[in-house]
Amino acid sequence: MIARFSLKSLLKPRVRVALAVALVAAAGLSSARYAERGLRHHREGYTSRYAAFTARLDPLRAHLPTDGTIGYLAQPDPTTDELVNAYRQSLIGYDLLPCRVEPAAEQELILFDADDPQVEPAQARTGSWLLVAQGGAGMKLYRTELGVHASQARATQVDEWNRLRAARVGR
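Given the sequence above, the corresponding structure tokens read:
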């Protein structure tokens, strides 16, 4: 016959109580450390890396749409891993919800993310992108030729609508 053993049968009640007290004390100590760190960060004005990174968008927010799609282009840098650029794009996309942030393609507005504020994308140097606004620490917002043509088409459409409305009121 095979004997059955359990942890309960191996440990005496005093040992079980001591282990339970040690476990509760360790959990309490861990919680106290997290609380102390949180209070210290609050006193010192701690800013998370996410908040510091997305604060670069603050000067651009007035120029960004509330919904739709925005292009994203990171500074071409052979030393930067592609995953880092994807991570930065996802942080910006999360911060600008419900607006979608996709890799730069055929969008009217493009966010250019560079660590150096002096760097410009090649499209801006050729004149096919126009600088709309400059954010903090190298973040820039550009309007593409597509966006320029689309805004001109919208302006023409609005002018036509106003002309038709004026003609209707004048009857």
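The beta strands are 69-74, 100-103, 109-113, 129-134, 139-144. Try to locate this feature in the token string yourself.
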